[in-house]
Design a protein that fits this description.
The chain is an alpha/beta fold and about 290 residues long. It has ten helices and seven strands. Helix 1 (about 15-25) links the parallel strand 1 and strand 2.
Length: about 290
């Protein structure tokens, strides 16, 4: 097993990408602390891992606070004897323009998306150092590399997290602690996928911006996380891995044309004047992908 004798904390692990990473790590032998603010789904993830023969437990953590991160790391140490892997995946998002978003929206976004990885790492690093090394993985986003209407706090925080990843890698490399990031594209949850399994329009809409004609899965991100947190990536640090189906390339190349053609085929979905430049698929009604 690739993570035998490792202890991993995965934040935001009650749903979607975090859940897939937690399950993947447990299947590869890690003891996993499921950290989330959502108690019931978090407990369910931990229970499902244990029923499959893995080891996991849930901890209620508000990672937007110093105490939440401190207590989360302390719980992992108490339950499993240490921390060797930290996955900063907790998510918070509110869309709107600079004029529409409040100071509270800005603070909440940065608390969860940027301050939380800083604080969780701060408390986990001494235990990784004591263990002779470790791996920190930050979940950023394709939105950290490009801009779209309505994402001023989210995209700014995700871009800053890419820079923080590099800084932490520089500071911690001498202790054998590797720090990397993953930038997912649009990853619909399992629930979204099941709900829309027989809807061809939903599938078509979700591949508009990708070069690959497939919809991303949370397991795609989990496999990248497994590599970056395992000994196989022993010589990799300070890197941000894009797992986006070619989203960024498609966004700059084929995306606009594809959206135009899609909306011409499905005018009932249009809420944006086709004569004006089209941004990402946020201009299409009921956009239900969970973009990281």
């Amino acid at each position: 097993m690739r993570l035998q004798d490792q202890t991993a904390i995965v934040t935001g692990a009650a749903n979607n990408i975090g859940r897939a990473i937690a399950r993947c790590f447990a299947a590869e032998g890690a003891d996993v602390l499921i950290a989330d603010i959502q108690d019931e789904p978090g407990e369910a993830v931990a229970a499902s891992i244990r029923s499959d023969g893995g080891e996991a437990s849930f901890f209620h953590a508000d990672v937007g606070t110093d105490a939440g991160n401190r207590d989360m790391v302390a719980a992992a140490v108490e339950r499993y004897g240490g921390v060797t892997i930290l996955v900063n995946n907790a998510h918070w998002e509110r869309r709107g323009s600079i004029e529409e978003l409040s100071e509270e929206d800005w603070d909440a976004s940065f608390d969860v998306l940027l301050k939380a990885p800083f604080l969780a790492s701060k408390y986990a690093v001494p235990h990784m150092r004591a263990a002779g090394g470790g791996a920190i993985l930050n979940l950023t986003s394709v939105h950290g590399f490009q801009v779209s209407p309505g994402y001023p706090t989210y995209e700014t925080a995700k871009a800053a997290l890419i820079q923080l990843t590099k800084q932490m890698a520089l500071d911690l490399g001498g202790d054998g602690i590797r720090v990397n990031a993953i930038a997912p594209g649009a990853i619909p949850s399992d629930e979204m996928r099941e709900e829309n399994a027989h809807d061809p329009i939903w599938h078509e809409r979700n591949i508009l911006w990708n070069i690959l004609p497939i919809v991303g899965r949370a397991e795609d991100i989990a496999q990248g996380a497994l590599y970056l947190c395992s000994a196989e990536a022993r010589f990799v640090t300070g890197h941000t891995l894009l797992i986006d189906g070619g989203f960024l390339l498609g966004f700059k190349g084929l995306g606009g044309t594809r959206v135009q053609e899609f909306l011409q085929r499905h005018p009932e979905l249009l809420e944006y004047d086709l004569s004006r430049p089209l941004g990402p698929a946020a201009h299409i009604r009921d956009k239900d992908t969970a973009e990281q």
